[in-house]
Write a structure and sequence with these properties.
The protein is an all-alpha fold. It has one domain. It is 66% helix and 0% strand. It is built from 6 helices and no strands. The longest helix has 26 residues. It is globular. The relative contact order is 0.16.
Length: 155
């Protein structure tokens, strides 16, 4: 009986955390659609649900790598997949690498350059839509299978 109660309390805490992140997602709508902070907010939602702090001595434990791998797992579970069509058949892993380069450029005060290393992204709009839809999909999955998301975060 005690294990059941502990499991229930943990489940309730996890649901509460997912609801908190969902509320943060709603708050992003208050920002102008063209605000770079909105893009950073969607990335923050993904990171809060899917990632753990990377081990600084492990070069394979980066946030970008965690997101790419964990989204691949989730996308295989979803009946409605992430729409990568606007990127013209480029593999999802490469798209997320470019999206994280975009995120990093904004987070560190730079201006995205869609001619150089971000050429694949083409524009701010092409980054905003998939990151927004992906964040919403991850929250939906977290509400359906909170334990899966917590397990993914830890690996």
């Amino acid at each position: 009986m005690v294990d059941y109660q502990r499991s229930y309390v943990q489940s309730d805490q996890r649901s509460s955390e997912v609801r908190r992140v969902a509320a943060q997602l709603q708050e992003l709508k208050r920002l102008p659609a063209t605000s770079p902070l909105r893009v950073l907010g969607y990335f923050a939602v993904l990171e809060s649900l899917l990632t753990h702090a990377p081990n600084p001595t492990d070069p394979y434990d980066s946030i970008t790598r965690q997101i790419k791998k964990k989204l691949a797992v989730l996308d295989n579970r979803w009946s409605i997949k992430i729409d990568y069509g606007p990127f013209g058949g480029v593999p999802a892993e490469k798209i997320w690498t470019k999206m994280y380069a975009y995120r990093s450029r904004i987070a560190h005060g730079g201006v995205p350059d869609f001619v150089g290393d971000l050429k694949l992204s083409v524009s701010d709009d092409r980054v905003l839509k998939p990151i927004k839809e992906t964040a919403k999909s991850v929250i939906r999955q977290a509400l359906v299978e909170p334990q899966l998301l917590f397990d993914l975060r830890e690996c």
